[in-house]
Write a structure and sequence with these properties.
Length: 350
Amino acid sequence: MIVYKILMYPFALLYGLVIAIRNKFFDWDILPEQSFDVPVINIGNLMVGGTGKTPHVEYLLRLLQPNYKTATLSRGYGRKSLGYILADAQSTAEEIGDEPLLYATKFKDTLVCVCEKRIYAIPNLIGDHPETDVIIMDDAFQHRSVKPGLNILLSVFDQPFYDDFLMPAGRLREWPSGYKRADIIMITKCPMDLDEEAKRKITEKIHLLPHQKIFFSAISYQDPVHVFTGVPLRNSNNVHALVFSGIANAPPFENYCEKIFKQITPLEFKDHHEFDLGDIHDLIHRLNKLPDEKIMICTEKDWMRLVRTEKAIPLKELPVYYLPIEIVLLGEEEEFKQLLHHFMNSLSIA
């Protein structure tokens, strides 16, 4: 790995030079950033994959949806369609992507749209639904043509951006100094027992600017839910689980399953893997080989790539579950809510 990083270092510097010039063009207004009358909140990161953007978008929706007409805007990674699409009750992951489908499924009162170019999507969204109070952009920290009113940067607890390097030598999409564009820095996937001293050390390493706030979040796993009946699995101690996933960072999901089940058989696919019937029959074959008291379980996002498709049909009579997750803030949650409330009020949306 060290040899690979050394070999990739010159390519990373070349990539970094291109990114730095691009960002300077935005800073100097050579490339324009456009603001909109509707409040726009961006959730993004500096590194590729696995920082927890999807559950943090859901967290924001839970806070905002009771009082505002919310919308989400994503690229729709992995979809087979092109252009601007507004999700409806018949949308599939192939049409809009797994993450947008998850938002549309869980938050019925939220508008969910996808488009490669956010700058083109927002006028369409506002034109179709002028009642929209706030737009949450998913994974658009590097898409600077849209200037968000509130920029939230995610950084993983055990893979902080300040200890990483540019692709392909590291996992950063841009130089670590890009953090300065953030209004809020959220340290994600923290241990639940994170203490104040650990928070202080991380905060010192980031060197917050005067306008920036830092928060710490953790993943709270819920009871497994049957994908067809919606019935939760309360007692899992004696269960053998075939644990499959196609996400950027599978180990935390697998580690949690290892804690709640008697035994697990993990099976990993690439991120946003498009399951086919061959995969499904292989999963069923592997499930049949397990002892009794057995289930098949995936993440909620993985299930979105199967629901409403013919690939789900062979699973109809089987014990198939997904594992819901929610974000919890480790202290200062009221401060975060007040900051969000102040942002909305400052734009006269009430």
